[in-house]
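Shipment paperwork, digital attachment
Item: protein structure file
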Amino acid sequence: MTRGKFIALEGGEGTGKSTQARLLAEWLAGQGLDATVTREPGGTPGAEAIRSLLLAPPGEGWGSRAEALLFAAARSDHVEKLILPAMEDGKWVVCDRFVDSSRAYQGGAGELGDDAILRLHDIGSKGVRPDLTLLIEVPAERVAERLALRDGGNADAIGGRDADYHRRVGETFREIAARDPDAFALIDGTGTIDEVQSRIRSVVAPLVTGQS
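Attachment content:
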């Protein structure tokens, strides 16, 4: 059996990753591929339980180190119990966020540094990386409009952080992608949902052709 592919969608808040991940999985299924869509943190019962702790934390919330450890634990369970088994079964996995989000949020904006996040990933998830990472980029002013519509003032513990934090997240994403251009495809996230999906499909199509 041919091993499946692993595609991650990354970007800051309000860039449309969840919608685009779902549409991409639907398109892959239309190409005759067995595709599953999942998310981080989450995807398995254990990881979803950790997600609840991260997005609605008890008490005063988590510091950057504790937050990074929780994300790494959720990802470890996700990789072991869903992502790798699905790929071994020949399925394509489309994931809304993966380790590069931890690199951008906790490593960059949270100031833990990239090396610390990658060490945690090596320990928890054996350094598993996507076959392709799609970094969706949207101008900050457009993101603010989308978040106002999406959250209505009720953002979660991470999405509700200040503009400077999210600016540093975006900067770190761009730095990570620039250091590893073969692993990333930059996607213009402006325009309609269908326009963005078309850009994504054009980038993913060679992977589909190569496995058909």
